[in-house]
Amino acid sequence: MQHLGAHSLTFQGKRSETAPMTWGQRAIWKAIRWLGDDAYYFNIRRIAKIPSGLSTAQVEAVLSAFVSRHEVLRTRFHEGGDGPVQEVWAEGALSLTVADAASGAADDVAAELARELVGLTFRHAEEWPFRCALVLQDGRPAVAVLVFSHLAVDFWGARELERDLQQLLDGSGPPEPQWQPLDQARFETEGPGAARGAAAAEYWRRTLHTVPPTLFRTVTGEGRPERFVRLGMDSPAVAVATTVLAERCQVSTGTVLLAATAAVLGAYTGHDTVALQLIAVNRHDERSRRLVAPMVENALFALNVGDDTFEQTVRRTFLTGMNAYRHAQYDPSAVDEILDEARERSHGALNLGCFFNDKRMHDRWEKLPLTDAGPDGLRALLGRTRLTFVGSWERQDATFFLHTGYAPDTCLLYLLADTELIPRHDIDLLLRAFETLLVDSATGTLDLAGFRSTRATTSTEKKLGETAR
Question: Do residues 134 and 14 share a domain?
Fold first, then answer.
């Protein structure tokens, strides 16, 4: 790879304005500040193929237009006198790194540049929340590397930007963005937007009175370098069993996975009521679906996982989950005040550190293994399950975080856990318990009381369950 230097991309937008950050921006701003120099963890990278026939000057013109169109890409973020603000600039320039790749090596060079750019924490008060590089091959543009701050976009917004850039490169003339973060911030402070936020905050207040303040004991101290561990499970059996249960209960597969998460946590900790924070996309209409900005906030989900069958629990999860997601757009500072009140009531014990995030864009698996989904067929699939180590970290703002990935023929589950509370060996056990719960329920009627009694068998589980109670 040969670096050819940095080119300056000038942009010209329609307005300059400073306004409060949107609720979604303020939600991720809090997490970014908490991580400090490690906030590159949130950066989002994308690779865009350049159509053949475009010159370097033409690609640079497209990238300049791209930044000009989207106000969030030319925004600085910082603390203001009345709280965090977004400062949109109408005019300015952005640096474009240009590198030359040997014939056939453009993709490898792009991957290397992406690793470099994504591994640097954004300084939001001094730099734009967007970095880009252009890889040439045989003197012609081949690949563009895009890195976004999570303060500018969430994964949905990044997808919108990918589509917009591809249309600009193809010359198909995408329509001008009609709703930008400045507009969203204004909507959230007045009229229906403000009313929605107030209703959501009241939902949090009511729900916090119904849940245990924590599912785990309190841990103090600084921890250790590999305290937080993430394991992954690749399970075709879970994909098939979840699909069977979704069709039987007439709900989404995401609802089944959420119900299983609550049931496994309840069995592990010994709690009848489980509180989870869900990652809410908050894209409810066409306007919000086209908005390039972080819209994600946490939804508070509380479910009783006592004596029902698992299928009954799945059906209750649907309505409870919908209600939680409906109340997931709010002013983070208002909910912080409510959390402070709940923390005071619990004498400091409050810890809503358990999360679930279904990151799949598809609710159904498109290429499920061929099986009759009966007991023998499902149990035969268990032999194809694979557990893998994903990574470890010294700091994470979660005790238990289960999220999904997507593959067309298998269920991908990833569990991050605080090993001060959930030992490494128990992360394996929890993922396996998740699989057992779904397979057993898909092949018969599973009573959760019985599941709880069979799960709480290790000394660690018993100890944690007794402590949590």
Answer: yes
What domain count does the chain have?
Answer: 2
User: What is the distance in angstroms between the CA of the first residue and the CA of the last residue of the chain?
Assistant: 58
CB 236 within 8 A of CB 384: yes
Name the nearest CA neighbour of 409 among 238, 210, 232.
238
State the DSSP string of 313-378.
HHHHHHHHHHHHHHT----HHHHHHHHHHHHHHTTT-----EEEE---S-SS-TTPPP---SHHHH
Which residues have C-beta within 8 Å of that of residue 63, sequence separation ≥ 6? 9, 94, 96, 132, 134, 144, 165
The token duo for 388 is 């893998």
Looking at the structure, tell me whether residues 183 and 215 fall in a common domain. no
Could you tell me if 253 and 160 lie in one domain? no
* Averages of pLDDT over each 10 residues, the chain, 469 residues: 79 95 96 92 96 95 96 96 94 95 93 96 97 94 97 96 95 89 95 94 97 86 84 97 96 98 95 96 93 97 92 96 97 97 95 96 92 82 96 93 96 97 96 95 84 58 40
Strand order in the sheet with 228-235: 297-304, 273-280, 354-357, 400-407, 410-418, 228-235, 386-393
* 357 occurs within a structural domain: yes
CA quadruple 117, 119, 123, 128: dihedral sign: positive
Q: What pLDDT shows up at residue 190? A: 87
The total number of residues written for the chain in this structure: 469
Helix (H, G, I), strand (E, B) or coil at 207: helix
How many angstroms separate the CA atoms of 272 and 469, rounded? 10
Answer yes or no: are the C-beta atoms of 145 and 45 closer than 8 Å: yes
Q: Where are the beta strands (DSSP E) in 32-148?
A: 44-49, 75-80, 83-88, 91-101, 130-137, 140-148
- Tokens representing 38 are 């490690």
> Which letter, b or e, does each residue of 135-162 get, where b requires 16 or more Cβ atoms within 10 Å of its Cβ?
bbbeeebbbbbbbbbbbbbbebbbebbe
Distances (CA, A) of 378 to 235, 336, 381: 11, 45, 5
In this structure, the answer to whether residues 119 and 232 fall within a common structural domain is no
Same domain, 168 and 217: no
Residues 267, 433: contact at Cβ < 8 Å?
yes
How far apart are alpha carbons 386 and 235 in whole angstroms? 7
The helix/strand/coil state of 106 is: helix
Q: How far apart are the C-alpha atoms of 179 and 260, rounded to whole Å? A: 38
Range of the domain at 346: 210-468
3-state class (DSSP) for residue 225? coil
